[in-house]
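Session log. Operator J.P. requested a structure for one protein chain; no other inputs attached. Running the standard single-chain path with token output.
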Amino acid sequence: MKFLFPLITALVLLSTAVLAQEVNDENIAARVNNAIEKNEELEGSDILVVSVNGYVMLAGQALSQEQKQQASIAAAFASDDIRRLMNELEIVESLDRSFDASDRGILDQIVAVIPEMSSATVPVIHNGVVHLLGRVTREEGNKVATAISKMKGVKNIRLSYEFVD
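Structure written below.
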């Protein structure tokens, strides 16, 4: 199966603090990506895999509820190191990239502000929805979420943090 690399603008900002993990996030993401690429039922979907400290998020677009479910199954069996799986795939009739420029604009705003506030925050942006991952204190997470909620183009924020306090 020819895999379509993610066409969405689900952008990830990784800091050096996030890269020093207890689990090998690069290995987890590679295994999940491989499982998705090999799954013929997921052909035509647009899936980005992000792993942060074993918390795995699937973002992007699926062409049906069945594809969305199949993506979860493929991911879940891909690695024993997955601590939590979050499937945030949007179900669409056809793939849509019309929001790419807006998502890039949101990322530019985040890059300008968030690293100073929380070097452990990893944002994943898709169609104006900002998913926040990382290992942070509640105070740090709330501070980042509040700042992002005021940014132009942000439709919603979903917290998927692992809180350390």
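Operator note: The chain has a mean pLDDT of 87.
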